[in-house]
Every structure is written in structure tokens, then in C-alpha cells.
Design brief:
By secondary structure, the protein is α/β, with parallel strands linked by helices. About 35% of the residues lie in helices and about 20% in strands. Helix 3 packs antiparallel against helix 4 and helix 5 packs parallel to helix 6.
């Protein structure tokens, strides 16, 4: 395997220059292996209707509600207010299952890069950003703030957890994906954008329940990090698999490859269906291509603007 094994704080700081040309709203429709084709319910920040009132001299005539005016036989205008800020909560997976990559970088490194891009972009947009960072034995809960120092703290903790992975036990620990989602549910009370950055390893019925609860009062999207080898595994004679410390000899390589690919496809379809029903976009991020380009293609139409 060649590529980036771990990432440093300096690497994450340098990604600030790439945090442009996109917003945290997916370009629609989203079509991909993991996402399917569906429309997002994510809202951009804009204008929200507040009231209908009588027209007074000096009001902008473009705000006149002509239907209400015709019905009530007096001029009425529609009054709008700018929507309040939307804090962003990044839920970042740095478990041992993320310590895998067959090409450019480990999934854990890609997740860290996505964290940096999301944090810098949120700060530039003037919103508060927080994070739930977790591995198999530790969870770091950083409440949203709007400051460069806070972004630096998020990136410092992300890099620290990432550096632990090469020496981490393959048996993992007591924490799982649902532990992090439960922390996110407690933190994101209302009107957040919750961004889950994970490979979804270990997702189950509790994952669906927690995602439903989060999405009931917030916007949510999933950045599903995957490695091309995970979608199609080619075996060779004598190949041995490792499942959280348990070594498995593959006596029939051809059968294993077929079953592995079928199981992967079924898992993808299962979670694609669940998240589509919850109207939560699932956007694929591969380890094999540079992350900033993928983010701009998914969220910014491929153009680079400040």
C-alpha cells in the first residue's frame, strides 16, 4: 500500500487554502454508488417569511403580495427576515476500521481532511463550528464556537487521534458509531447542520434511530468515506483476512471474493434506502482521489471561488 498513513496539524492548516469554491450544501440531484439519486432537504441560509402587513409609503413595491392585495382590496407586502445562523457539528470517525487505504490515503486521513475543509469553510461563512471526534476508546466533544482558535483546537484534536491509529490495537475498544451519534444528538438540539464523516462500520438499528432523532430537528448529511478495494476485493492464493484481530484463512479465494462483493453491495443498498427515507443525503468520498476536488464537485459545481 502506498499513500498517506497519517496526517499532521500542519497538513490540516494548509487545507485552509482549499476551503473555497463550495458550501456545505450538495449539488443536486446526487447520483453515486452510495447516495442513489434523490433530492436533499438541506436548506441554505436565505430569507424566511415573517408576516404580511399593509403597504406604507416608502416600501419596496417588489415586496407587494399581489394575490393578498387583490383579495383584501388593499396593498399588502410580504416581510422577510434573514434566517438565523446554522451551527455546524462535524462528527468525525477515527476508529481502527478507518485505518485502511489501498491507494492515495487511509480512510482516517481522508476523514481528517474533510474535517479541516468543513471547519475552515464554516468559519469563513461566519457560522459556529463544533465537533464530535471519536476513536474506539475516546470521544472529544467540542461545542460550536466562531473563532480561528476554536478551529485550530478541532484540527489539533483530529490530528492527535489520527496519529494514534498506527499503534492502536486491532481489537478496538468500547466506543462505536452510535456512541458518537448519541453525543451528537445531545449537542445538536435544534437547527444544526450535523455532518457525519465515517465509513459507517458497525451501523445498525440504533444508528437508524439516532439519525432519525437528529434529523427531526436538524439538517444532516453523511460523507461516506470508502476505499475502492472495499467495493471490489481481488484475492490471491494464500491470502489471509483479519477481522478485528481474528485471522481467517481463505481456502476458496474465488468464492470469498464473490461473497465479499455481494455483502458490500447489500450493505450499501441497505443504508442508501434507510437514509433516503430519512431524506439524509449520503455523499461518497473515495480515498483514491484528492479530497478538495471531490468536495468542490459535490458541493460547489466544480468552480473555485472565495
Amino acid at each position: 500500500m502506498s499513500g498517506t498513513i497519517s496526517i499532521t496539524l500542519e497538513d490540516l492548516l494548509q487545507l485552509r487554502a482549499d476551503a473555497r469554491g463550495f458550501t456545505l450544501l450538495p449539488r443536486l440531484p446526487v447520483g453515486s454508488l452510495l447516495a442513489g439519486r434523490h433530492h436533499s432537504r438541506l436548506r441554505g441560509r436565505g430569507l424566511s417569511f415573517e408576516e404580511l402587513r399593509h403597504y406604507v409609503q416608502g416600501d419596496d413595491i417588489r415586496t407587494i403580495d399581489w394575490r393578498a392585495t387583490a383579495r383584501l382590496r388593499e396593498p399588502y407586502i410580504r416581510v422577510y427576515n434573514e434566517e438565523r445562523e446554522r451551527p455546524v457539528l462535524l462528527v468525525v470517525d477515527q476508529r481502527i476500521t478507518m485505518f485502511f487505504g489501498s491507494q492515495r490515503a487511509m480512510k482516517s486521513v481522508v476523514a481528517a481532511e474533510l474535517t479541516a475543509l468543513g471547519a475552515w469553510r464554516t468559519l469563513t461563512s461566519g457560522d459556529r463550528v463544533g465537533a464530535i471526534l471519536f476513536n474506539d476508546s475516546e470521544i472529544v466533544d467540542l461545542r460550536p464556537h466562531r473563532s480561528q482558535n476554536h478551529v485550530l483546537r478541532i484540527l489539533h484534536e483530529t490530528a492527535r487521534l489520527n496519529r494514534l491509529l498506527p499503534n492502536y490495537s486491532a481489537n478496538g475498544g468500547p466506543l462505536d458509531l452510535n456512541t458518537a451519534l448519541e453525543a451528537a444528538r445531545r449537542r445538536a438540539v435544534h437547527d444544526y447542520l450535523v455532518v457525519l464523516i465515517s465509513d459507517l462500520d458497525g451501523a445498525n438499528q440504533d444508528t437508524q434511530r439516532l439519525a432519525t432523532q437528529i434529523a427531526a430537528h436538524n439538517d444532516m448529511l453523511v460523507l461516506a468515506v470508502y476505499d475502492p478495494l472495499g467495493a471490489q476485493l481481488q484475492t490471491i492464493p494464500g491470502m489471509v483476512a483479519d477481522d478485528r484481530g481474528k485471522r481467517i484463512s481463505l481456502t476458496d479465494q474465488n468464492t470469498f471474493a464473490v461473497n465479499f462483493q455481494r455483502a458490500f453491495a447489500e450493505l450499501v443498498q441497505h443504508w442508501r434506502t434507510i437514509f433516503r427515507a430519512l431524506r439524509i443525503p449520503v455523499l461518497p468520498i473515495t480515498t483514491s482521489e484528492p479530497v478538495p476536488e471531490q468536495v468542490r464537485a459535490l458541493f460547489g459545481g466544480g468552480t473555485v471561488n472565495k
